[in-house]
# Entry
Amino acid sequence: MSRRISIFGVTGSIGQSTVDLIKRDMQAYDVIALSGGRNISQLARDAIDLKADIAVTAFDDQLDNLRDALAGTGIECAAGTQALLDAADRPTDWCMSAIVGLAGLAPGLRALRHGGTLALANKESLVSAGPLIMAEAAKYGATILPVDSEHSAIFQALIGEPRDAVERVIITASGGAFRDWPLENLKDATLKQASSHPNWDMGQRITIDSASMFNKSMETIEAKEFFDFSPDQIEVLIHPQSMIHAMIGYADGGLMAHVGPADMRHAIGFALHWPERKYLPVERLDFARIGQFEFRDACDHRYPALRLAREVMQAGGLTGAGFTAAKDAALDAFIAGHCGFMDMAGIVEDVLSALSRNNEHNMGDLTLENIRVTDQLAQKFAADVISARIA
Ligand code: NAD
Ligand code: MG
# Structure
């Protein structure tokens, strides 16, 4: 029997890797909904290739383009935020959440209501709404499987082990574009330099987030929320080869490490096939050729984003929503040339301080509405902080 699946954010990097895996075994899947943004030709091509029931663009002004692109195919089309939610309401057995940003949260929450599996790539969901999304999954009997190399690695290293014996979790980081730079040079790092990643081929934003470790700081928060670790159990270790993705240290001193190729199709495929393990078209590692694994300390001095992540984890509540919004605003400012590479953490810190002084933000429970309010508030504070720095 074929599995009903939907892919939200199909036109992105994770979405396209998911399509690659689905296309290799088309008869196993019944594709319900695909969503994208402004890349309508890609969205339409995927909808046709995967024989989807419906294609949805997140943007109202793209509806006519999508309709034209799908004319005569019999595939339904729709546009806008409500259409995304309606598409997520269509029952599935497996749903990929790979929209980027806070826009991915609400469709993911809806998809959990079917009680199937949510393959979660969208980082903002767990960082801004961890307890909310985990409670919804429990309420509807849904399974969430992580789609990030580190979290998939943690998941795999925990299988069959007693949870109460977990002592610590080591999340590895490549160290990004500047791992070999002297600390004093980082303030002069350019956009072009920050946009090239030594190991992974990803979009510009996540590549810069890797160099600044904001990506890793998001991942430590995700790990806490998803696996219910305490913040002081989570360590970040620089591992330039990006082949050990995470390790779990147990009470007897033993560690379970997950080693795999730097290819997101491993984590996506694991989530697609779990609890089975099936063939995946990824590189087989040749350790004799790799030669050695290196490790380095990830110090807060060089990577202030890691310290901020610990503060966010300690604060809890709506702080994660403020953190993601502030981080994105700081990243926008760096990309626009409005701040230096090392200024991003200072901007985020200032926004978090402004939020903690703001009563409207502090009184709210963790609801979708309050997350949106915090997101807007953090964006406003970030705009103020950035313009004060430019002035
Ligand atoms: P991407 O930018 O390549 O693709 C994002 C997708 O979201 C596209 O389909 C785009 O059309 C859609 N989208 C953009 N804005 C939207 C909006 N406002 N409303 C609805 N849809 C919108 O991103 P990606 O690299 O595929 O990452 C997707 C998510 O997975 C992110 O949260 C990212 O942090 C996370 N992630 C990515 C990687 C990776 O290797 N690329 C690894 C781990 C986690
Ligand atoms: Mg990762």
